[in-house]
Amino acid sequence: MAKTGKIGVLLVNLGTPDSTETGDVRKYLREFLMDGRVIDIPFISRWMLVNLIIAPFRAPKSANEYRKLWTDRGSPLLFHTEDLRDKLVERLDSNEYVVSMAMRYQSPSIESGLKELTDANVRKIIVLPLFPQYASATNGSVIDKVMEIARTWQVIPEISFISNFIEHPLFIQAWEELGKEAMKKADYDYYVFSYHGLPERQIIKASVDGYCQLSGCCNKYHSKNQFCYRAQCFHTTRQVAAKLGLPEEKVKTCFQSRLGNDPWVRPYTEDVIKEMAGLGAKKVLAFSPAFVADCLETTVEVGEEYKEVFLEHGGEQWDLVPSLNSNDTWVSCVEDLVKSHS
Ligand SMILES: C=CC1=C(C)c2cc3[nH]c(cc4nc(cc5[nH]c(cc1n2)c(C)c5CCC(=O)O)C(CCC(=O)O)=C4C)c(C)c3C=C
Ligand SMILES: [Fe+2]
Ligand SMILES: [Fe+2]
């Protein structure tokens, strides 16, 4: 029997300020960091940390960094996500699918993205958080927000959440293609896979039966650590490195963007850079596979700030593999994820 109604697809990325004005950056940081899944400490302590320390002091600095990144089309994170949505719309049959996109923080909101779908009277919604590796701070937060909104509806259609997609062959293939292209530039001494960091306690909280110990437990990916963000990052590296035929001893997995004084997952990217430089590395190629679109974390942090650190410590060439953005193989991956959850 043919099913009535279309399927709605909601693509969700992290979020970005509305402009590079300090006030807009502060507003974005406040919304983002007041999320209890991002800074997972009691509400009062979080409120004081965010509103009295992080937002006031970090906003002017972050605004400057956003100015380096901003383009005529605005924030790359936003326009790459719009391009991805537009290409996905071209791939899917409009008689069967409606596609919308949203940002977890700021605009366009998840409320507006879901409204586009419910206005089209969809029979089912597929939510794809655009974070390849599951973390409570990202995918978990998107799922939480969608459920918070959906629970106010009279009619709640079937909803499917895609938890992670690190094992999708087209996700790995897209990185392989981008890596191959970048590797034409030089014969690199090391290949660095730098992922967004997380406080260590968030890894421990997600651990099943105390399995994750933040060390050798991530050398294999299996049912015991299937939701461990760190294990998923190492697993992503292993798959991409194997496709590119990179020798194990030349590949480094590490974690960037630490915020505050608590321990975050290690090794830290900065320490790995210094270690490689100390071993005499001159040319390094960096991948950022925790992000599917270029943003502050890739272009500025990895592409500029870490490059500076490497050059200061004796390195000569530091190149960054561009993100998936709206790469055709990546669009095929999203198309397949949607169709296989339909
Ligand atoms: C406690 C703080 C943070 C956690 C935990 C965290 C997890 C996390 N974030 C991303 C992806 C992105 N983060 C981005 C920016 C960003 N992240 C934090 C803090 C935490 N992130 C801050 C304060 C900022 C703002 C930038 C700054 O002021 O330095 C971005 C880029 C957004 C953009 O507009 O370009 C992304 C993307 C992941 C994947 C993740 C956990 C796995
Ligand atoms: Fe972040
Ligand atoms: Fe682990």
From TrEMBL:
Keywords: Cytoplasm, Heme biosynthesis, Iron, Lyase, Metal-binding, Porphyrin biosynthesis. InterPro entries: Ferrochelatase, Ferrochelatase_C, Ferrochelatase_N. The keyword Cytoplasm applies. The keyword Zinc-finger does not apply. One of its GO terms (cellular component) is cytoplasm. Gene3D superfamilies: 3.40.50.1400. Its main location: cytoplasm. It catalyses: heme b + 2 H(+) = protoporphyrin IX + Fe(2+); Fe-coproporphyrin III + 2 H(+) = coproporphyrin III + Fe(2+). Its EC number is 4.98.1.1. It comes from the Bacteria. It is found in: Cytoplasm. Belongs to the ferrochelatase family. This is Ferrochelatase. It comes from Algoriphagus zhangzhouensis. The gene is hemH.
